[in-house]
Amino acid sequence: MSITAPVRRITVPQLRARKGGDPIVSLTSYHAHTAAIVDKYADFILVGDSLGMVMHGMDSTIGVPLDLMIMHGRAVVRGTKRALIVVDMPFGTYEESPNMAFRNAARIMKETGCGAVKLEGGARMAETIHFLSERGIPVMAHIGLTPQSSHVMGGFKTQGRDEDTWAAHINDAVAVAEAGAFATVVEGVVEPLARKITAAVNIPTIGIGASAQCDGQILVLEDMLGLNPWVPKFVKKYGDLGPAIEQAVSDYAEEVKSRSFPGEDNVYR
Ligand code: KIV
After folding, report:
1. How many structural domains are present in the chain?
2. Is 206 domain-assigned?
3. C-alpha 34 – ligand 1 centre gap (Å)
């Protein structure tokens, strides 16, 4: 029995039960301070491997190491108390075999305290999703545009423009749901396909650049805050923090240079 007060977070079964109900709100976060703000509004927070590009200046998510995901995952768990925290499994840590996926997913869960992991891939990952969820690891799937496969896909391209491909995408969604995924991200697919996918599965679909009719939505926090100089076309900016930060930094630099920086009181007490 723990002697610490129980933290009441949104659980995996609670999130799964939202299929067809109140839309699920989610955002990415990579550190404690922003996570504490997002925690008040989001049902789940994703520590996405997009952190490689957003926080560390990488040009894709391929190079993100497991230890980095664990470090940021820990920070987000520390900064939050309400939302379910989902941590991405980075490229190369789960595709080879269900055993390998279990070892790395267990490390993520034990070392971060998160409630679930996310991995990319549809039917081809079904066996692994089944293996993990049967062994106590809740899995969120990620289908449609899967950034870790961007080299195979020829870049970050909207999926499903050709209607002949729809059956394969719907098959992916059904396969991950039947394998035991409790929800799936549906990224970068044409709107009518996202609607069909949502209708075809009994688990919540979380759209990003997909359809308002998905069971929930996710955005990369820095994109919607206007902190990223380049964002995909579908992203609405709910804030414009880039110029606000620049103004603050330039005001500070000006005060330091002109020696009008608050001096006398500027000491640790
Ligand atoms: O890594 C990430 O941020 C993601 C979201 C875009 C869904 O996978």
Report:
1. 1
2. yes
3. 16
* Of 96, 99, 148, 98, the residue nearest 121 (C-alpha): 148
This model's pTM is above 0.85: yes
Residue 254 resides in a domain? no
Q: What is the CATH number of the domain that holds 223?
A: 3.20.20.60
- With a 6 Å cutoff on the Cβ, whether 50 touches ligand 1 is yes
- Cβ neighbourhood burial of 92 (10 Å; 0-12, 13-18, 19+): middle
Q: Which atom of ligand 1 is nearest to the CA of 48?
A: 1
Residues 183 and 175: their CA atoms lie apart, in Å, by 12
Q: 196 C-alpha to center of ligand 1: Å?
A: 21
Question: Of the residues 46, 85, 145, which should be mutated to test ligand 1's pocket, given the most ligand atoms within 8 Å of the CB?
Answer: 46
Q: Which atom of ligand 1 is nearest to the CA of 49?
A: 1
Q: What is the pLDDT of residues 106-117, one digit of tens each?
A: 999 999 999 999
Range of the domain at 111: 12-240
**Among the options 120, 127, 178, 187, which is catalytic?**
187
Shortest-distance atom of ligand 1 to CA 147: 8
| pLDDT-based confidence at residue 7 (cuts at 50, 70, 90) | low
pLDDT at 264: 64
Q: Is 142 left (phi over 0), alpha (psi -120 to 50) or beta?
A: beta
Strand boundaries in the chain, DSSP class E: 24-28, 44-47, 84-88, 116-120, 139-144, 183-187, 205-208, 216-219
